[in-house]
Design a protein that fits this description.
mainly alpha; 76% helix; 3 helices
Length: 126
């Protein structure tokens, strides 16, 4: 059976009528009201007991899982891997003059970037 908006409205209306008639019965009959409240209280207590039992079971399972997790033996450390070292001879290594020139270029580029950053910050604050 498909649920359509019309069916939802009809069910809602009927539930509202049922609730109203129950309230009228409660007002008219004190014993019926007390019996209904007692039944709901017993059902609620039963539901709470079921939930507590389920919670206890879940707690026990969680404790067992955590204990198994921590009681596992730790895996052996991985073997150390050799470090690869490359040694360049003087013929293939850059000369000190080349290295100094590259360092000078990088320093100049960094100074230019710093100036443009400071300039953009001063433009934003103005």
């Amino acid at each position: 059976m498909s649920s359509t908006p019309e069916m939802w409205l009809q069910q809602g209306f009927r539930a509202l009528l049922g609730c109203a008639s129950t309230v009228v019965e409660w007002v008219q009959d004190e014993q019926k009201r007390q019996a209904q409240l007692q039944q709901w209280q017993q059902e609620m207590q039963q539901l709470v007991q079921e939930l507590v039992a389920k919670g206890e079971k879940t707690e026990a399972e969680a404790r067992e899982f955590v204990e198994r997790l921590f009681n596992r033996s730790s895996p052996p450390p991985p073997p150390s891997q050799p470090v690869e070292v490359t040694i360049q001879d003087e013929a293939t290594a850059p000369s000190q003059a080349q290295a100094a020139a590259q360092l000078q270029e990088l320093t100049q580029e960094l100074a230019t970037l710093r100036e443009s950053l400071e300039q953009s910050r001063s433009d934003d604050s103005a």
